[in-house]
Amino acid sequence: MTRWLLVVLAVSLVAGALFGYDQGVISGALTGVKQTFSLSLLMIQVVTSWVTLGALAGSLVAGELGDRLGRKRSILVAGGLFTFGAAVQWAAPSVLILVTGRFVIGAGVGIAAVSAPLYASELAPAQLRGRFVSAYQLAITTGIFLAYLINAQLSASANWRLMLGLAAVPGVALVLIALIAPESPRWLMSRNRRAEAAKETAKVQPDVDVKAQLQSIESAIQQDTQKASWAEIFSPKWRRPLLIALGLAIFQQITGINAIIYYANQIFASAGFSTEVSRATVTLWAIGGVNVLSTFIAIAFIDKVGRRLLLLVGLIGMGVSLAVVGVAFHFIAPTTGVLAASGPTPAGIVTVIALIVFIASFAFSLGPVVWTVMNEIFPAQIRARGVALATAVNWGAAFLVSQFFLSLVDVLGSSWTFCLLALFCAIGWIWIYLRVPETRGLTLEKIQDMWALKA
Ligand code: BGC
Hints:
binds beta-D-glucopyranose
């Protein structure tokens, strides 16, 4: 690995960490935010969910931005938005400004989440590409863990401004790294800036035959000009891969991962963890730590046992554990802010154990596998748009879950809400069993042939 390749890797790691930090931090910040602005249930969910709405918007413009400004500059924009959004949240005098800051930071996350993996895949040598993508996944879960760690440190003082404001640290780090990072030769070539493309290629991969590399980029770009229109993406010919990508994107979210990531503290409060410190600690280890560790299982097994098996086994673990949480909540009296000082009840302990199983099952299956399949299932000419659409749908589904989870709990009660999520796992299992083919070990061309045969 050259020094410059490490810089490329750093872009992808910091972008992933920034995505994760933002996902995790709100869980600890909500208690303080609620107190400062005396929020209603609706507004608590708006403060939480507007990040995903911003990310949805960011992911929709990211493709265009990356093509016009270049990869490097769109990553700079993402880092800038992220830093600015963090500062706005830190200083927010009103809830309206706080929500605006949440949206801005979300836009940064959305742009980074599309640009960074694209940047890495364009600059990493083929034999390292898979590992660069796995590293990105791991960075997301590490970012969530770090956010929970900071939440736990600051929980006693409920210093939500600092929790949210510290997101500026990865934001500034991303800006600084992007400033020195090389531009993608593929983008430079698409702008006819051949000399610069040659310079950057030689810098990142000094052992490679620069001329041959640029030639292969050139022919790939020519193929790209035959890129399909939006209408073609919806043509019956590609309906199967499209439905598979969209279905996976939706099931990844409606089975509840971000309800747990965002509202872990609230769930543990209902389960009898009576102090902010005890809640932050159990969130840190039971959710954050387990999420990171279990991602290694996916990295080890995804190319060995295949995607389908990981998805099907993971969904069983997720469904069963959610059903157990549902039953456990049956024995937990609904809390109205007055909590037993005596600590978690037996049903509360069962809830923690079941949530550990849930997070572990998600992290070795739906978490990383969905992103992998989404990126390999489309034929070349519709890949960019197909992935962008599925990513946006993923954020849209994340928005719905984070916007309505607490309301669902309010209307149905915790017990039935978790049973509903378990039901979505069961439906997802049946759908994957019937519809999602195994793609392990197949070249992208072979995967493409699969659709031709079945059409
Ligand atoms: C999902 C995120 C989620 C994260 C949790 C990702 O694969 O797309 O929505 O917050 O996993 O680790």
